[in-house]
UniProtKB/TrEMBL annotation:
Pfam family, one: HTH_5
UniProt KW keywords: Arsenical resistance, DNA-binding, Transcription, Transcription regulation
PANTHER family in UniProt: ARSENICAL RESISTANCE OPERON REPRESSOR (PTHR33154:SF18), TRANSCRIPTIONAL REGULATOR, ARSR FAMILY (PTHR33154)
Name the UniProt record assigns to this protein: ArsR family transcriptional regulator
Entry-linked SUPFAM superfamilies: Winged helix' DNA-binding domain
Keyword ATP-binding: no
Species this protein is from: Shewanella japonica
Lineage summary: Bacteria, Pseudomonadati, Pseudomonadota, Gammaproteobacteria, Alteromonadales
Domain HTH arsR-type: 1-93
Length: 123
């Protein structure tokens, strides 16, 4: 799937502000679940899930299941040119996700957030 990624496909995927924010958050945090995206971006779960599905179909993100949660990360099999575009976009525009990252950090550490946000428990 990722071998079919074209520049047009990559930039089309990143042209939506929610999808761009999702990708930038994943670059910063390495791995997040849907509830973390909803908290950070102040968007409803169906909207986040729909955008994650589009990013997954494009081959930009992959997911893994751990218990009841599905975690998303940047696809490590992306072509090097695509990894460079994503990295440079993040490095040159960290301010775009500074607010969402601050919101996540207020909730807690990366590994604790899904239990707090998804289950409502404070551990």
């Amino acid at each position: 799937m990722t071998s079919q990624l074209t520049p047009i496909g990559l930039f089309k995927s990143l042209s939506d502000p929610i999808r761009l924010s999702i990708v930038m958050l994943l670059i910063a945090e390495k791995e997040l679940c849907v509830c973390e995206f909803t908290e950070a971006l102040d968007e409803i779960q169906p909207k986040i899930s729909r955008n994650l599905a589009l990013l997954k179909t494009a081959g930009l993100v992959v997911n893994r299941r751990q218990g009841q949660w599905i975690y998303y990360s940047i696809n490590t099999q992306l072509p090097s040119w695509a990894k460079t575009v994503l990295s440079e976009t993040y490095n040159g525009n960290k301010a775009l996700v500074a607010g969402p990252l601050a919101k996540l950090n207020l909730v807690g550490k990366n590994e604790d957030r899904p239990q707090i946000l998804c289950c409502g428990s404070t551990k």
